[in-house]
Amino acid sequence: MAIPPSLAIYAKANPFMRQTANAFPTCEGALQLAMEQTAFTLQNARCLVIGAGRIGMLLARKLYALDAQVTVSARCTRDFARIAAAGLHALDTRRLAGHLAGFDLIFNTVPAPILTTEVLSDMKPPCFIIDLASLPGGVAADTLLPDGCRVLHALSLPGKVAPLSAARAVFDTVDTILHEEGIL
Asked: How much is the pTM?
């Protein structure tokens, strides 16, 4: 049996299903990294989640459930309303400069280099950035961090922290495509 063309482009053919399933291990991996890489608890930690998409909002809710002080940045009115409805604080992603001094942890989910030297200049140590975004990531390549602050590019977390769940997400997506194509 020949492999249907839709399997060759499975990441594009049904990305919502695959990406949504892998949002859970991505968020759990981010929490794990935050706990392993910092000397403080997430309870009462001042956290900024940049991006209000599927990963950003899921991560924000998980942080909130752990009693962190959570702010989510977004760009559109609809997202600001969702953030407020979730009981979280909001910032405009386009206006982050001058607003980062109060955060202990920053989680980026935006796959564009929005975190520049200028934007990060007011961060206070030991602020820690966990960049979850696909390449090129959210931290610009030439960014200089303030002394005592760190960044960790955390790519491919589903396969690293939950390989069985990540494999299940891929399997379920392929299975769905095969059923949609009438092969199974």
From this structure: 0.86
User: How many other CB atoms are found less than 10 A from the CB of residue 100?
Assistant: 21
User: How far apart, in whole angstroms, are the C-alpha atoms of residue 94 and residue 75?
Assistant: 7
Per DSSP, what are the bridge partners of residue 137? Answer: none
As averages over each run of 10 residues, the pLDDT of the chain (184 residues) reads: 54 54 91 97 98 95 98 96 96 97 97 95 95 92 93 92 88 80 80
Dump the DSSP string for 89-100.
Answer: EEEEGGG-TT--
What lies within 8 Å, CB to CB, of 58 at 6+ separation is 23, 24, 27
Residues 6+ apart with CB under 8 A from 30: 59, 107, 130, 132, 154, 157
User: Taking the mean position of all CA atoms in its chain, how far away is CA 25?
Assistant: 11
